[in-house]
Design brief:
The complex is a heterodimer of chains A (163) and B (470). Chain A has 163 residues and is α+β, with helices and mostly antiparallel strands. Chain A has 2 domains: 56 residues; 79 residues, PH-domain like (Roll). Chain A is built from 4 helices and 6 strands; from the N terminus they run ααββββαββα. Classes of the chains: A alpha+beta (163), B alpha+beta (470). Chains A and B meet through strand 3 of A and strand 18, strand 19 and helix 14 of B.
């Protein structure tokens, strides 16, 4: 996964902690279980059995595939702190590289959902004046996440991001 | 001659006639919806027996308006605002008190809105956009003169407008809100608005769908029964409503459109004038909206023309400005429209005023030909260019769009690539600015160029930001 198009200008990506993969696996499993479980349940109740079985089979394949892919998707994520900007990358099929100048960050948040709490990790989310930016750094241990947030907030433009 | 206003730091109330106007607005809205209801009743053949006597409706209406009026009076009685040297503060509430304030440096744009009733009483609403979804401050209602005074004061503080430009302003025309001393850039005639509207892509497409559906229904009715026509007609109502909304947005609300330049002459050299002052757009038939946008606050421009506008040489300009209201929510707003319709010369005038001494015509580079597999219908129109000051993209032939974003307004830069792009050896670069109609996407570029473009854009944005006047 070392495509020069999506590489940081220098240095290496910092990848999510291993707990992130486990947390994502559980979340992915539950999501797809609900997405296919509800229609399969409805079909068993109201339609002939071949419908429920075929939808269930498709659901099972998708679920297994997604859960297998979790590890690769998580490892494809990364961030790098440069002098003036923060670089964030993600995706395998749909790859992206987002670069946010420190001066443009309006809010830096640390978030933890239920699974992230179980596995002792947190997500740092960056908010600029553009909703397109959508950069977040998941899979960081909470203390590190708080440090990163404080560092990024400090680097933020004191002039209110120059709007 | 109006003199520049000096802040006293004392709190004051909105104009005493406010409850009356608010009460009337509520009454008019009720009356309107009632008439609509009655209209639909009449269409119902056997609704006769269930209809309510008219005097019950009338009494209910009056009572509601009265309650609305009393509520408005209480609101008015407990609303106070203070404008001092640093901020605007508004305090409201009787049982639940709330206080909101906006520091001057956060002011993005200021609207003076006069609804129809407000115009009769000479009252106006002052709206201060301060960025963020809920940071909008509304002072309603003030006397027209007071609203203009406060606006000028706020702009002077927020943008460093020269106050001598304000003191020499003469009395404004009540119809157009333009005073004799204003530097008028553009005026639009009703003819221009109507011609522009009738030839606009939005109108033609909606009207075409309407006509085609009507013909379809007619054929259906002729082939089978009249029932087809009766069942189908109500389905077309949304289309008619859409045309009405378009006409209201681009014609009725733009009548008497006048764009003036404010706060000029506040610097000896072009560099000092850069980013100072702004434009004020006044327009409207029944309600009059006057919106001032400081040049600094323009985050991006979209200059576009539909197919029929090309032979006529007509364009429309939309802008990204932070805190622009959602136009669906408020019918008096101009939304993101800067110029509803204009000639190439008028567009050039606006660009020259908003982005002075700026290179807006970089060499445009087309996307590689292999992107035709992904964009078969317009691949030859995808172009982009970078000047020392701005990013420019162009695309489309049915609807030609040119986007301009100053480097200093770059919020973030992204590179993206999907599986098909990967197979073709392409990648897209996005230069993100604030939310609005201007979204720069430089799609389907050679990966090496995409990378170079993205990284160099960061440098340009940094340089522009550091040199921005403050």
């Amino acid at each position: 996964m070392s495509d020069p198009l999506f590489a940081p200008p220098h240095g290496e990506w910092r990848r999510p902690a291993s707990g992130y993969i486990a947390a994502r696996r559980i979340a992915t499993f539950i999501t797809w279980l609900i997405v296919f479980g509800i229609p399969v349940g409805a079909l068993t109740a109201f339609a002939p059995w071949p419908f429920a079985v075929s939808v269930g089979a498709v659901g099972l394949i998708v679920l297994v595939w997604r859960v297998i892919r979790v590890a690769a998707l998580c490892r494809a994520r990364g961030y790098a702190e440069m002098d003036e900007e923060l670089y964030v990358t993600k995706g395998i099929w749909f790859q992206s590289l987002t670069v946010v100048p420190y001066g443009r960050m309006q809010v830096v948040e640390v978030e933890r959902d239920l699974f992230e709490r179980w596995f002792g990790i947190a997500t740092v989310r960056l908010v600029t004046a553009s909703s397109e930016t959508g950069a977040s750094i998941p899979g960081i241990p909470p203390e590190q996440a708080a440090e990163l947030r404080d560092r990024l907030t400090e680097l933020g433009d004191p002039r209110g991001s120059g709007l | 001659m109006a003199t520049a206003w000096v802040p006293t730091g004392r709190s004051e109330r909105p104009h005493p006639l406010t409850p009356l106007v608010r009460g009337w607005v509520i009454f008019a809205a009720l009356l309107f919806s009632l008439v609509q209801e009655l209209g639909s009743f009449r269409g119902d053949e056997n609704g006769e027996g269930t209809s309510v006597p008219w005097w019950v409706l009338g009494a209910g209406l009056l009572a509601t308006a009265l309650i609305g009026g009393i509520a408005s009076f209480v609101t008015w009685r407990f609303t106070r605002f203070v404008i001092d040297d640093r901020e605007v503060r508004i305090e409201t509430g009787w049982l639940n008190k709330s206080s909101r304030k906006v520091p001057f440096e956060r002011v993005q744009s200021i609207d003076v809105v006069q609804p129809f009733v407000g115009r009769l009483f000479g009252l106006a609403e002052l709206e201060i956009q301060a960025g963020g979804s809920d940071s909008q401050l509304r002072l309603r209602y003030l006397s027209r003169q007071r609203a203009n005074q406060l606006r000028d004061h706020l702009l002077t503080r927020a943008m460093g407008e020269s106050s001598d430009a304000l003191t020499r302003r003469t009395k404004e025309n009540v119809l157009t809100g333009v005073s004799a001393s204003d530097d008028v850039l553009i005026r639009l005639t009703p003819t221009a608005l109507i011609v522009g509207f009738l030839t606009s892509g939005e109108f033609i497409w909606t009207a075409a769908i309407l006509v085609i559906s009507l013909i379809g229904l007619g054929i259906g009715a002729w082939m089978s029964s009249l029932g087809v026509l009766l069942a189908g007609l109500p389905l077309l109502i949304p289309l008619v409503v859409a045309i009405g909304n378009l006409a209201s947005k681009y014609v009725l609300r733009q009548v008497n459109y006048t764009m003036v330049r404010t706060g000029h002459g506040s610097g000896a050299t072009p560099a000092m004038r850069h980013g100072r002052g702004g434009v004020r757009i006044t327009a409207g038939l029944t309600s009059l909206t006057s919106r001032t946008i400081p040049f600094d606050r323009v985050q991006g421009l979209k200059i576009h023309q539909s197919l029929l506008w090309r032979p006529l040489g007509l364009f429309r300009i939309d802008v990204d400005v932070i805190g622009t209201r959602n136009e669906e929510a408020d019918t008096d707003s101009h939304g993101n429209v800067l110029l509803p319709i204009g000639t190439a010369a008028q567009v050039a005038t606006i660009l020259d005023v908003i982005l002075p001494d700026t290179d807006l015509t970089p060499d445009l580079r087309p996307a590689p030909r292999r992107c035709r597999w992904l964009r078969p219908f317009d691949f030859w129109t995808l172009k982009h260019g970078v000047s020392p000051d701005v990013v420019v993209t162009e695309q489309g032939w049915l609807h030609h769009v040119r986007l301009i974003v100053p480097h200093a307004k770059t919020q973030s830069v992204r590179i993206r690539r999907g599986p098909l792009q990967r197979a073709l050896g392409l990648a897209s670069v996005f230069v993100d600015n604030v939310d609005g109609p201007v979204n720069v996407a430089i799609k389907h570029q050679d990966p090496q160029w995409a990378r170079e473009l993205a990284l160099s854009q960061l440098d340009r944005a940094r340089t522009a930001r550091n040199h921005a006047p403050r």
